[in-house]
Hints:
Mitochondrial carrier fold; disordered C terminus; branched-chain amino acid transmembrane transporter activity; 11 helices; Solute carrier family 25 member 44; MCP_dom_sf; repeat; MCP_transmembrane
Amino acid sequence: xxxxxxxxxxxxxxxxxxxxxxxxxxxxxxxxxxxxxxxxxxxxxxxxxxxxxxxxxxxxxxxxxxxxxxxxxxxxxxxxxxxxxxxxxxxxxxxxxxxxxxxxxxxxxxxxxxxxxxxxxxxxxxxxxxxxxxxxxxxxxxxxxxxxxxxxxxxxxxxxxxxxxxxxxxxxxxxxxxxxxxxxxxxxxxxxxxxxxxxxxxxxxxxxxxxxxxxxxxxxxxxxxxxxxxxxxxxxxxxxxxxxxxxxxxxxxxxxxxxxxxxxxxxxxxxxxxxxxxxxxxxxxxxxxxxxxxxxxxxxxxxxxxxxxxxxxxxxxxxxxxxxxxx
Length: 327
């Protein structure tokens, strides 16, 4: 398959950079699509958090069991606890994209032509910036996700914050109570609890995602027939990249969730998880995490269709590169 030659990419898949797009259209549609994708996949994210924070199988026996029990005990709304707060993370996604593109352009100016190196470095830097905006929102959202029906029961005992019963009676009461309690107990630092643990998860995850993505795109492009749509190759490479990076970083993700909710140190959390799970730490919440990554990464390529500002500047078919949020 011939390589499209308007840039330094060699995978045979045309990469459209941010400067080639209508930015106003891109960022507005990226925010809208981020909201829609998050709405579709949020229940799986909530289940992942609860699986990671429970002791062994004290409440749920797996992803499907958690889904059934939450639906039965808390209703459909129980699957969306903290959803509206979590949508503030869209700002971090846009920051992620802007940083990723900027770093790629800087590396290009320094004549770094290796696509995998550019993707790896830019992905890591983008995650660093994205997490700075994301961690405070993530902490509040995770506390909301741990609230069981009416804030009582075994799920509440897993959340160290003592949320007053009166706060549970209004729509925004739990959010205000969580923000107030976190600030009262830990000050502003409380909203960045687990920040470095998050970086230890998402920066490598982001870097690995882009690294694997370039590899999978190249391999698929080399072996795909000419009639195969380029977008189909990207929609295949993206979830494969998500699965690969999730498997590698899953133990740190479980530790991160515990640190942010339980306010423990890294070593304490890692030791507790190892005593509770042993080798199960490598698979704790992994099925839900893989599903989230697979679905989200598979949907990302479709966001970019039609946003190219100069689609005619390079001949032949091309594909729009995925801007993954790193979540």
